[in-house]
User: Fold this.
Amino acid sequence: MEDKKQQLIKIIQDFTATTGIYLADDVEKRIRELAEEEIIPHAKTMYECMVKDLDLAKELHRPICQDTGVLQYFVEVGTSFPYINELKEILTEGARKATLETPLRPNVVEPLGEHNTGDNVGYGAPYIEYEIVPNSSDLRVRLYMAGGGCSLPGRSKVLMPLEGVAGVKKFVYQTILDWGVNACPPLCIGIGLGTCAATSAMLSKKALLRPIGTHSEYPEVAKLEKEIQEGLDSLGIAPLGFGGSRTVLNVNIEAAAHHPATLGVGITTGCWATRRGDIVIHEDLSYDFVSHKKALEGTK
Ligand code: SF4
Assistant:
């Protein structure tokens, strides 16, 4: 059992390190598409720098960006997964080892005390959110590396009932106009729609974790994703605030049925180097690194 536990820690360690070194397939594909289609010369140069950075990170086996963020694990664990009771310890140890051995930048400072713990582990860190899956023996782990700049524009508020879709758009556009440039655009935009500030913020994070190219299953919401993407692109903020044809890599919205008197809207932003990983681990510890299939081709 102890050997298996160590094996699982190593899988989490490697998964975490890899997420810091290689972009997920969908994010890298989108960056390369934007680099290809950009026609404004200085913007094209910025994209060329990004692509070179991605290639160098792979070649040197070093993180894409110096800010490897605070590690956030979003876990869906089957009730029959054999290591369910030790999951917090396993994820924490995997995060610590990935930080020290990759290395990732130690970003975690104690709440208000600001003392850096040195290994990205501390009170409430790494952040772990659990979802229990009945009748399953699998573990799915999604990792998001929450950098400083890319977390900065995040916010949520509750709109008055009659503000509706126009209120959602106004809030999102104003947020990106005011703060988007801090997050190294082009941006991945996650938007959550719910009843209160808390649920809409959580839904916006869920939206950010969804791959580029996927759309809401609700036609009205999918339509709004497209409209907001077009609206944000017209701001011409990216790349890196120098101005260009695009502002965003994508816009994803997760919406939940809400109270008739309120519409909560949350926004979470990811930068051009949005680092998120998605892995499914089976009870025999075989695994499928869902988000990085292409990135890892030929590396084993
Ligand atoms: S916003 Fe992203 S690319 Fe920019 S410094 Fe932060 S983590 Fe790095």
The chain is about 40% helix and 20% strand. Residues 65, 67, 147-150, 183-184, 271, 273 surround iron/sulfur cluster (CB under 6 Å). The CA atoms of residues 161 and 262 lie 5 Å apart. Residues 2-21+64-147+275-292 form a domain with the Dihydrodipicolinate Reductase; domain 2 fold (CATH 3.30.360).
